[in-house]
Each structure stands twice: as C-alpha cells, then as structure tokens.
Design brief:
about 400 residues; 9-stranded mixed sheet; 3-stranded antiparallel sheet; single chain; globular; alpha+beta
Length: about 400
C-alpha cells in the first residue's frame, strides 16, 4: 500500500484474531541469519530483515532486546561444525560474530558449560504477536480492510473489468459474503498447500505439522540464563535441537522438541484431526523421512512424554540443571514443507499458477517472523513483476 496507495486491499483471516498460529506461537527470537545457506533467500532476507525488525520495533515502541546468544560446542566432535558455522555467518554478513573459549563463555553465560562457542550479539527477542497487530494497524490506517473468521475454501475465476480475477468464498463463514479480487496473494501457513491447490497452485510441496513442546525454568531460576544458549546443529538430524531462550517477558523456555502433530493446529498431544493426520500419513515424503530418522523420532516422542528424559538433552549445556527447577511450558506447530522424496524444503517458496493473477507463499520457514518485513518486500516485488497490472 505504500507503493500503490490507490489499491484496495482486503486481508482475509480464518481465525478470530490475526497471527493466531505460527506468528504468535514461536520462541520470539529475532534471528541474525547465521545458519542458512549463503546466497539463499533465507540468509539474505534474515540478515536484512533482522535490522528492519529492530528498526520497526523502535519506531512503534515495541520492546525488543538484543540480548545475544551463544552457540555452544560441548563435545570435541562438534568443534569442526562450529568453525564451519562461524565461517558461514561471516559469509552471510552477520554482525559482531566472535569465536570464544570456555572461559569467556562463562563470563557471558555463567551457568553454561562448553568447550568453545560462537557469540552472536545481534540476536534478540520480541513478542511477535505485538508486531503482527502493529502491522495490521498500519494497514488499516492506510485503508485496508480485515475480515476475520473467513475460512476461504472456494476459489473461482471471475471477470474484473477487462481482467480475470478470483472469486473467493467460504463454506463455513455464513455471515460473510464472498469477495472478488483482481490479484490474490496467499500466505496460509499450516494450510498453505491446501489453499494453493484450491486456487490453481501446484501439488507440492506439502505441509506436515510438527509440534514443538517447551519446558520453562521456574520463575525463581530464570537468572540461570542471561540471553540464549543454542546447540551446534547436527546435519544428520532434520531439526535444530533443544536450546535455552530468554523471552521478552522474562521467562526462559527450554526446547523445543519436534514430534508429528496429529492436527495442523495440534498444540497438545491430545489434539486430533482425522483429515490432517490422514493427509500426513499417506504422504510418501513423510514416510521416507520417518524411516530415515526412526530412532531419532522415537526418542523425540519419548522425551515429549517423559520430562526427565527431556532434561537429559539440556544437561550437557547446564550440568547443574535439575528437574525441580523446570516446569511444563507452551508449544508451537511448525508448518514443515516436504517433497515426495522426503526432502525438507529449507528455503522460501513462491508459486505463481499459470494464467492466474495469483501468488502463493508456499513455504515461509523460520526465520520468517524475523524476516517478515523483507519477505513482504520480496512478495510485493515478485507480484509487481509477475502478476501484471
């Protein structure tokens, strides 16, 4: 709307409020761009997006804290991967990176054990739920309309003047009539594959929901973590691993793990949706992924059910941590894009169906919240170039 103030914009949301899922059910970390493949959209958008996010939060008065993080090697076998990660961060242009020894690590995180670590001072924390609502206010102040509780599930071609647009209807939102648009941009998170297929998009990638459960330090023990403590990623496993994350409200979260969710909005073990589970179970990519990482997956499930086992994955970084110092925490659901061959889609994916003025954001992986402002710019520039007038 800043570029095209004459446009009439409507934002459609299936839930009662904006940002009800991944945008608010996340660790609240403003990432620096260290982990991602140099040259990838993920790396470029994160490095620039983090600075844009800090600037936006300052402009809007949203608390954001550059508390920094350390990525810690606790075993000799991790030192080579730590060095490679450091070089990747330098190549990506991450600011302020330093390789530190165990003694300096103790000065930054007194209760953390490690042989060596990367100190990433530019990593920070924010409440992304507040960011979402600030962005929505910006949009409505410029004339955008927001429709909540409108689950779009029918998309048909429709003439808009001399152009072919899209007629959008909802079979579940009886109180709201359909919408006709000239251009359509979708970013449906957990439901991005379904919405794309319903409106002309390609079949793959598919979304498989993975739930991540956190533990928390009890309030009287939050002093044990000053910023964030992360593991060295193991490329043999599909997810990052447990870490210690200070929150903007002062809480400290421990985790998450990663287990298959039985519903796309399955925040609890008991949450179940037959359609969601059936689609996941019949997808060949998930079956290949499960078979490849069967032992790891069973371990994650065991740790999900047994907090003492979860604790054992945390203790290498904080040997003094005890079960009495922790309590159960929240959970989130990751919209994991996967291909039929079992490969996880690691980068942003945009899909523009042939013959339609439609752009689908098919995959927006972490650090999508950090990168949201620069992702928005990328989406707008892609739409300008590909969708026409």
């Amino acid at each position: 709307m800043l570029r095209h103030p004459s446009l009439k914009v409507v934002l459609i949301e299936k839930e009662k409020s904006l940002g009800a899922h991944q945008s608010s059910h996340n660790s609240g970390v403003i990432h620096s761009g260290l982990y991602y493949q140099p040259g990838s959209k993920r790396a470029k958008l994160c490095v620039s997006g983090s600075q844009a996010m800090y600037a936006y939060c300052k402009e809007k008065g949203i608390p954001a804290d550059r508390c920094g993080k350390v990525i810690v090697a606790v075993k000799e076998s991790e030192l080579e991967r730590l060095e490679m990660l450091y070089k990747r961060g330098i190549e990506n242009g991450v600011r302020g990176l330093r390789m530190i020894d165990g003694e300096e690590l103790k000065r930054i995180e007194p209760h953390c054990y490690g042989l060596r670590a990367i100190h990433v001072p530019d990593t920070g924390i924010v409440d992304f739920g507040r960011v979402v609502h600030a962005m929505a206010k910006d949009a409505t102040d410029m004339g955008a309309h927001v429709r909540v509780e409108f689950e779009a599930d029918t998309f048909t071609d429709h003439k808009v003047g001399n152009h072919t647009g899209t007629h959008i209807a909802s079979s579940t939102s009886k109180l709201q009539g359909p919408i006709t648009v000239r251009h359509l941009i979708t970013c449906a998170g957990q439901w991005s594959d379904r919405v794309a297929r319903q409106s002309g998009g390609v079949e793959e990638p598919s979304i498989i929901p993975f739930r991540g459960d956190f533990l928390k330090l009890k309030p009287e023990h939050t002093h044990l973590v000053k910023g964030m403590i992360y593991p060295v990623p193991n490329p043999a496993f599909p997810f990052l691993g447990v870490h210690f994350t200070r929150r903007i409200n002062g809480e400290v979260w421990l985790g998450p793990n990663a287990v298959l969710a039985f519903a796309r909005a399955g925040y609890k073990f008991s949450d179940f949706n037959l359609r969601d589970l059936w689609e996941a179970a019949r997808h060949p990519g998930l079956r290949k992924l499960v078979w490849k990482h069967l032992r790891y997956g069973l371990g994650e499930l065991y740790r999900d059910l047994v907090p003492a086992a979860y604790l054992e994955h945390l203790k290498p970084y904080m040997p003094s941590l005890t079960i009495e110092q922790i309590t159960s925490g929240p959970s989130g659901v990751r919209a994991q894009a996967i291909m039929p061959d079992g490969k996880l889609v690691e980068d942003f994916v945009f899909d523009i169906p042939a013959g339609r003025s439609t752009l689908h954001v098919r995959n927006a992986p972490s650090p999508a919240a950090t990168s949201s402002l620069t992702v928005a710019k990328e989406v707008v520039e892609t739409a300008e170039a590909k969708l026409g007038g």
